[in-house]
Amino acid sequence: MVDETLLNYKIMSKKTMHIKMVTPWGVPLMYKELKDWADVDENEFMKSHRMVVRTSKDDFEKAYRFNIIPYSEVQKFELDAIENENNYKPSLSLTLGLYDKFQKVYVNSMVTLDAPFINMENYIKNNEAGIFIQIENKIRTTNLNLSNISPYVLLFFDEELFFKGTSYSINSGTGTYTIQTQYKNILVIRIPLEFDLKEVIRVFKH
User: What is d(CA 17, CA 37) in angstroms, rounded to the nearest whole number?
Assistant: First the structure.
């Protein structure tokens, strides 16, 4: 005699799975239907598989292997990366004196340079918070090459460290972007800012 309870359980424990590999242009590269498959967890089931791609360019000898990761795990990884980036603050800081408060600004480095031409790409990368530059050359103006430095704002200060003006470095295309300045103290910080530039009075280095 067939145990109907066990038979019904086995039937209920199965399901049909439809697996499709979707491309950015909407045409699936693969479609597979698994009929009467075991009632497994879909995420764990797909994670246990690998994809292999071979091309004629490599005479089909070289295999490119790929893992399958659930989208929920990718989202969590992206959110964790954003949170870590937001929580990271460089160890160096300066203080800006505003009209009604003080504002701490973090920078990755403080450097002293003696050169008529400064290639900023040598001193700051696009993912860094900023840099404070003190120029010691004796000439009237200094050329700053800001090509590939974006998005940043430059704050210029006089010898007494009082605020004198700004210039923006926002990459909007190819080509060289160079500016001249007569000021010897320059704070370069990534935008957007946490304060209003119109309220800046001076900077304190210590």
Answer: 7
pTM value is 0.57
59's tokens? 């005479």
Q: 3-class DSSP state for residue 69?
A: coil
C-alpha span between 171 and 193 (Å, rounded): 17
Mean pLDDT of successive 10-residue stretches along the chain, which has 206 residues:
52 77 75 82 83 85 82 70 57 88 90 89 83 88 87 92 90 76 92 88 86
Residues 97 and 187 in one domain: yes
Q: Which two tokens stand for residue 124?
A: 């700051």
- CATH label of the domain that carries residue 95: 2.60.120
Domain boundary among 85, 120, 139: 85
